Amino acid sequence: MHSDKIKEFLKKNKTAAQGGGEDKILAQHEKGKLTARERIELLLDEGSFVELNALTTHHYYEFDMQKKKFFGDGVITGYGTVNGRQIFVFAYDFTVLGGTLSAMGAKKITMLMDHAVRVGSPIIGIMDSGGARIQEGILSLDGFADIFYHNELASGVVPQITASIGPSAGGAVYSPAMTDFVIMVEKAATMFVTGPDVVKTVLGEEVSFDELGGAMTHGTKSGVAHFVAKNEYECMDYIKTLLSYIPQNNTEEPSVVPNDDDPNRLDHNLINIVPENLLQPYDMKQIIYSIVDNHTFFEVHELFAQNIIVGFGRLHGRTIGIVASQPLHLAGALDIDSSNKAARFIRFCDCFNIPIVTLVDTPGYMPGTNQEHNGIIRHGSKLLYAYCEATVPKIALVIGKAYGGAYIAMSSKNLRTDINYAWPTAQIAVLGSEAAVRIMNRKDLDKAKDPEALKKQLVEEFTEKFANPYVAASHGTIDSVIDPAETRPMLIKALEILANKREKQLPRKHGNINL
After folding, report:
1. Which helix (H) or strand (E) holds 108?
2. pLDDT tens for each residue of 306-315
3. Which range has highest mean pLDDT (61-65, 368-372, 447-451)?
4. How far is 396 from 515, CA to CA, in rounded Å?
5. Which CATH number fits the domain 2-245, given the four candidates 1.10.1370.30, 3.90.226.10, 1.10.860.10, 2.40.50.140?
6. d(CA 215, CA 59)
7. On the chain, which terminus has fewer CB atoms closer than 10 Å, C or N?
8. 170 is catalytic
9. Which residue in the list 72, 171, 213, 219 is annotated as catalytic?
10. What residues contact 155, with CB distance under 8 A and at least 6 apart?
11. Choices 3.40.470.10, 1.10.1040.10, 3.90.226.10, 3.40.50.960: CATH for 270-431+467-497
12. Alpha helix segments (H runs only) across 135-195
């Protein structure tokens, strides 16, 4: 009878919804963690989730695995909406065999990713996994390889976001690293290629899980985590906010969000943020918050490489990506980590049609054997490459120091930047005035009766002749020297004129960025 079939259907779906069973769900809750289904419900609009492949099971019989079959097989996949926008989501289910990845689990994830790419919707992955399912051997490893390949296929086509809310080890960490943004939850998430036990055995180092690969470690030191969330609820809020700034896919423009912030709003206090002595630090974020709509700035990679700032804001409703020197940290000098951080962000913005606004106050690239030996030349070139490669509207504003190679790297005119502004406070030169004078006038200073007085005079002369925005403006590398108070309206006008920008690229398979 049909009623029996319906009963069987309801029973199977109820069993699938229980994952690894009540005991495993309770154990997850006792750790202070939500289950995979609860996480999806927390992220998606109420009632919008549609599950795919809920009745999938593994097909492995070694090690008595036929007695350990669970519907869903350790990962939940499906689609729904976040604030009305369609997204695809997969979540590892730790209640089923520790969330380990099986061949069928990998198939579920890659099928989902294929759907997302075909319809042009973001992919959200929620990590809480024991890694490869050892019992399945190479089949599980092949599953990870399939996921990595699909990460690459989706890259630059649809946004990919990872929420790390539990363990990820070995091969499991590389899929998150291939996505656009990673959010890790403090005291819950860990990511490492080899765990503390292996580190101790091989190297004799004693290290805890959290020290080796916790959220703060990856948020501050490695840069793997773009955001560090206090808990799972804040993690989901980060995803929702991030989605609000970015488009569905690479063929769409970011949404324009109407607001009541006057596009012609002036700020006469902006000039007072910058010290008269440009060698003194100040907080570039004050300038960013003043310029953007409703003083709202969503910072990315806030805890990592703090000498450069990246993140999203809006100007007259349009999403922009902001890259800015931060004089509060290392005087805003560029180093290995900041070059990597900014280059990756620029390339994301370029993938998804987000204009880039760059605010410049940098004394140069960071000197020293540590930087040179660890590859500042190689890593620093990524920033140059990213700006040259980007075809989205690019606007740069020099606020203070812009010296040497760092001036070039921070979206200078010859890197195909569309509009370059400067404040009257800008100093654009090969070197800072004092350093330049010491090099060019060493003999005169050595012979002078009053070297300090002579140096002061020469510094003033050099600054007047070279280290000011008007020299750059006379050569066309600065389009306009602007009143700081008018920064917001001038940036908005530049974005409007560049809204329909189109650039043709020479045919090639791809460039060869110095990774």
Report:
1. helix 103-119
2. 999 999 999 9
3. 368-372
4. 25
5. 3.90.226.10
6. 35
7. N
8. yes
9. 171
10. 178, 180, 351
11. 3.90.226.10
12. 138-154, 174-178
Are the beta carbons of 361 and 399 closer than 8 angstroms?
yes
- Of 103, 342, 406, 426, which one is the catalytic site residue? 406
Q: Which amino acid is at 186?
A: E
CA 459 – CA 468 distance, rounded (Å): 12
Q: Beta-carbon neighbour count of residue 81 at 10 Å?
A: 16
Tokens of 16: 């699938």
Exposure string over 233-269, b if 16+ CB within 10 A, otherwise e:
eebbbbbeebbbbbbbbeeeebeeeeeeeebeeebee
Q: Report the alpha-carbon distance of residue 274 to residue 277 in Å, rounded.
A: 8
Judge whether 453 counts as a catalytic residue: no
As a whole number, mean pLDDT of residues 4-33 equals 74
Rounded to the nearest angstrom, the gap between the alpha carbon of residue 86 and the centroid of all alpha carbons in its chain is 21
- Say what the pTM is: 0.93
Catalytic residue among 170, 195, 317, 404: 170
pLDDT grade for 334, boundaries at 50, 70 and 90: very high
Residues 13-33, buried b or exposed e (16+ Cβ, 10 A)? eeebebbbeeebbeebeeeeb
DSSP 196-224: HHHHHHHH-----HHHHHBHHHIIIII--
Largest Cα span, the chain:
110
Kindly give the interhelix angle for 451-465 and 433-440, rounded to the nearest 10 degrees.
Answer: 120
Tokens for 220?
Answer: 């501050």
Domain with CATH 3.90.226.10 in the chain: 2-245, 270-431+467-497
Query: Which of 270, 296, 384, 287 has the alpha carbon at shortest distance from 327?
Result: 287
**What does the pLDDT read at residue 59?**
64
The tokens of 404 are what? 């040497």
Spatial separation of the C-alpha atoms in residues 96 and 25, rounded to whole Å: 9
Catalytic residue among 19, 214, 405, 432: 405
Which alpha helices (DSSP H) does 352-427 contain, by range? 369-373, 376-389, 404-409
CA distance 131 to 111: 19
**Which residue in 311, 392, 317, 318 sits closest to 359, CA to CA?**
311
